[in-house]
Amino acid sequence: MSEAKQLSALVLVADGSEEIETVTPLDVLVRAGFTTVKSVGVNLKNPLYA
């Protein structure tokens, strides 16, 4: 029997994101079977992209 492939994801979170905008994608990934889900905060210095 072969081992199941482990899925992992990295979610980028921009400065100023609302809590629901961060938690919802993480929750969906976990429910979809991703075993490793990490979130990383992104602090943008340029106000045009923030």
From TrEMBL:
Matching InterPro entries: Class_I_gatase-like
Domain of life: Eukaryota
Official protein name in the record: DJ-1/PfpI domain-containing protein
Organism: Aureobasidium melanogenum
